[in-house]
Amino acid sequence: MASDQVKVLKEKAKEAIDIYSPELYELNKIVWENPELGFQERSAHDQLTEFLANQGFDVTPHYTLDTAFRAECGEDGGLTIGLISEYDALPEVGHACGHNLIAESGVAAALGLKIALNAINQRPKVKIVLLGTPAEEAKGGKILMIKNGCFKDLDFCMMVHPSPVDVLKPVILARESATITYKGHAAHAAAFPWEGINALDAAVMAYTSISALRQQMKPTWRVHLIISEGGVKPNIIPDRAQLRCSVRTMNDSDLEVLKEKVKNCFEAAASATGCKVSMEWETATKYSHLETNNTLAELYQANAESLGVSFPPEAKFSASTDMGNVSHVVPSIHPMYSIGTTAPNHSHAFTTAAATEEAHEKTLIASKAMAMTAIDVLCKQDFMGKVRIDFKQPNEGEN
User: Fold this and answer.
1) Measured distance CA(26)–CA(49) in Å, rounded
2) What CA–CA distance (Å, rounded) separates 83 from 66?
3) In which family does this protein belong, per the annotation (predicted)?
């Protein structure tokens, strides 16, 4: 397709997103004002699917999961472009990760593409698919959707994520979580302490052992721990204690190494105190590291920069997401975009920032960059070939 046609499509996509700006802002505010935890996002699901149906998308609500959806337009026989909306919130702090904005970004990009392609006479065969993916926060909604075959027909997939900084290729770590339970024997802490086996002691020993382990950990490894249960009264030797643990590394192979070291700490604490220990690792929802597709990232960067965005080389962002798992089954990108706040994600201040008009405007810029990137791949055949080559030769996270 001629370069002037590509330019026309990009302009029409940007124009469409601007025209629908008030409706999109209202949609994102509705999601923000009604924060719902993972797999409970019924209001967000219903609001988003209703809006998309009203814009002429073919919508499948409750798509393999109760609060997931699929909205599509276009025709078979060409590329299938995947976009993502997230909309789950966090306990107590609501939309402190800005998933109301991610919901808006996917809808805006899909709508911009739909309107732009419908505005030209000789449009290429293409299908646009927007997936509504619930429960990103720790419950792995996308992982379940991968297992359900929801991504198998996509040629590539894009989503953007709000943050304090603009980062083209964020470090998305592999992550697995576990619940560790120690069982001991209760006794009166003053009268017969020698009869007790202290489960809380085991939990504390495990915690301090892992704190000591950090000295020998790679700089990119992370272990997060809380003691979630540790007894009910100080005059009773606790017969049960529980920890919640998450481990993160730059890649999946390192994750197994770190996991083994952490397991040794849990088992050693049990042995030292005479407690029994059980570990329930959430392997079914293990988050993989992100394989950023370099070709898609370069196209997104060029388009975002044409809209006034810059990506400072020193800007960093490190977290985990089930979009990492998606990137192992379909070529993907997950850029972070600034919403004009210095507040970190998962803070009350970020929740406030995610509702502002500035955050909305910056979300539309990221949405336009996604739509423009899709147009580049759609209209210039060599790009899709490069995307596929990048996907076949991934660069696993650094050791």
Assistant:
1) 14
2) 19
3) Belongs to the peptidase M20A family.
